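User: Can you predict the 3D structure for this chain?
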Amino acid sequence: MRPPHSSAAVRRGFAAIAVAATATAVALAGQLPASATETSAAPSASATRTSSPPAATPKLTNLAHLDWLLDTVPLLANVPGHTTYNQASEPTATAPWVYANRNPDGSFTHVGGGAITDGAKGYYSQGSFDADDISRSAVVYLRDWAQNHTASSKQHAYELLRELTYLQTSSGPNAGNVVLWQQHDGTLNPSAIPIEQPNPSDSAESFWLARTVWALGEGYAGFKTADPAFAQFLQQRMALALGSLEHQSLAKYGTTEVANGVKVPGWMIVDSASATSEAVLGLSAYVKAAPGDSTAATALARYADAINRMSSGGIGQWPFGAILPEKNSPTFWHAWGGMEPAGLSEAASVLHRDDYQQTAAVDTAQFTAQLLATGGPDNGWTPTPADQTQIAYGVDSRVEGLLAVADATHATGLDQLAGAQAAWYFGANPAGVPVYDPATGVCVDGINSDKTINRNCGAESVIHTELSMLALDAHPDVARIATSLNRTTATDGLTVVEAESGTLTGSATIVTPPSAWTGSANWSGGKYVHAGVGDTITLTLPALAGAHRILPIADLGNTAGSGTTSWMALAGSHSTSLGSSANTLLAPQGIAPTTVFLKPQTLAGTAPDGTTTLTARVGGTVDLDAVMVQPVVSHLGQAGASISRDIYINGTDQRARQKLSATGPVTVQRFDRFGQAVGGPSMLGSHANVTVEAGGFTVVSPR
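Assistant: Here is the predicted structure, written as structure tokens:
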């Protein structure tokens, strides 16, 4: 599996680690159901498209657990390069503890990052607080203050922003950058253990600088009228951050690089569309509130341009229109940090760029729909769904992206998908149980790939859970969908058949590389088949219901590879030629960490209904990893106490027909490849055939 990214939040995204607890456990009333396996004057709200909620619509946002995570932090004087607003008169601020471990009685314990290094002082090898969570906590409270006019949230946002700007280095060669870790007594820890890059943490741009820009931008917009003096201070710190970025990633504007033959932009923050998109969220809010700041507007335009260029694939072509997150890998997508469509959509609205909005719409309407049918926002597609852990960070990124594009384009189909995705919190998830309690604000740190639940509830998890709840409260129609669905009844999306599971002839042999992880992708199953001219590989499939697209995965960077591989599908006694796949593209490695290039290819033909075997006949030399099987029409089924919903997703560029299994009358609504409604709802009888638009989806619910 891929080693964790250097970002603290990303590290927690791969596994919310239960680390040594502090001496005092603090109880928080309320807990989630324990049935699953356990492991350790307000500013104006942004204009959003909402509907009038009925009086009985319950509020989902509950910041009680996040409030409990907050602690007082001394702002130490005479620390070179570290000052903040009104430090002399207000010598303390606020920060959230990084982790919260759940105790057997349902209470939680504050926990810092890393091992305890000094029990007397309460020091950790990393720290108690980090800039990643301080910045995003500020965003939560800013949005709650704007949306719900909560006075305490205004104060929390103020204190968190003062704390965040204290971590920002204000002078010297690293001015504008941000120290990541801080101990409970206020001591900064620029070089944490384990070592993270950059080291020291304020020596270069970082995920936490990007998130600082996010918080500063939304902070300035929030306080511009309510507290002009503080807003001016935040504006100065935004200028400081942008000054640093102008000497780093922005200095590379217009440059491109190549990763496994794919041209990529050279000016993203830490070479990541994930980090850049979170900065873009802040810049969009800031530029809207400070339209005269040409430096910020230019930064926004350039970073949005970079994100837009990371769109990849399309209808039926992996990764199906997703905006990929990492510059050095065209074969890796992850749900955590997936704010690319949300950030790009917000930027598109500010910059009046319809092309950017369309890119975000493709990611949300096409890729996200396919993602949901395949099981939801997995932590890693590399390119197969290798890490099936799911966390709130990934879920929230999908929800926020869907709603941002829906608000901007009035694509009501994206509301439907947002409701389906947000139902994850209420039980429609791989574990099949609720993972958020609106009565207490308690969430979980994730659902593991084996469907067990990590019932700790640390800062990142509750931050992104509450960002989702704020978004749902602002969209009550979507909230009603999400809260009415508490289980998944069907997922029929991408499946993977390993090449090594097949019957081999000739010289074909199974190879086990030293590591499944190549540096930018995974050999699926940890093995592959090396085959030469005339060799065959026959793969057994479960009998396919309906037609399917076939996507072979071979190492296209293999310098010893040559020729093509032809494919035949067998359904009963009938054989169908599916076309051929390349054995190599001799793609230049460029900045990619390896020559191995495991990019799925889509065959021209379609495997018919009832296909049971695939046979590959090699013409040349190939290292074949696996075959990805995609239904022409994928399916997500969800249900609740008194409702069921089915979403059918078309993975081709032609309209498709789908026979329903429903035994009663249904309501059907079609949506196109951008999530726009096609006609109005129609009423059909039992076992009807419905149309699914090219690259679009159809939502079916009982009447």
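The first strand starts at residue 38 and ends at 39. DSSP finds 14 helices and 34 strands in the chain.
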